[in-house]
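> forwarded from #structure-qc
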């Protein structure tokens, strides 16, 4: 929506619509925290002792192929997938990234307050007041 509703500003620069971006920057910090939780649930205990790349090419290669394969992936392919999940939701990097994404746009509490203040609430307050004044 930000792209579809973009407009050229007074300086001749195509600028995305702010309202969709504002909504996204308020919801994304919450969503990003949820992504690693989902990946950890899907990976389950398979993420606990994932072999390394050296294991895939070393003496354990045959065991990895035999015991870590899945219905659609070879053992080495599955290890690579689990390593990616590890990097994105369990590693030190992922913890830093989660913190970064949470605060990237600013303090989420202050952003939420600014988001609420950015809307004209008067029409809604008037509707509630009219409802309360009905006999």
């Amino acid at each position: 929506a930000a792209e579809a509703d973009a407009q050229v500003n007074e300086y001749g620069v195509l600028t995305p619509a702010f309202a969709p971006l504002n909504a996204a920057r308020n919801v994304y910090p919450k969503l990003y925290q949820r992504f690693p939780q989902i990946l950890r649930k899907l990976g389950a205990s398979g993420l606990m002792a994932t072999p390394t790349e050296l294991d895939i090419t070393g003496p354990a290669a045959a065991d990895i192929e035999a015991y870590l394969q899945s219905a659609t992936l070879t053992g080495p392919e599955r290890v690579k997938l689990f390593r990616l999940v590890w990097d994105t939701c369990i590693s030190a990097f992922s913890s830093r990234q989660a913190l970064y994404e949470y605060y990237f746009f600013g303090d989420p509490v202050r952003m939420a307050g600014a988001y609420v203040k950015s809307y004209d609430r008067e029409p809604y307050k008037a509707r509630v007041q009219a409802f309360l004044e009905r006999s």
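QC bot note: The longest helix spans residues 18-43. The first strand starts at residue 7 and ends at 8.
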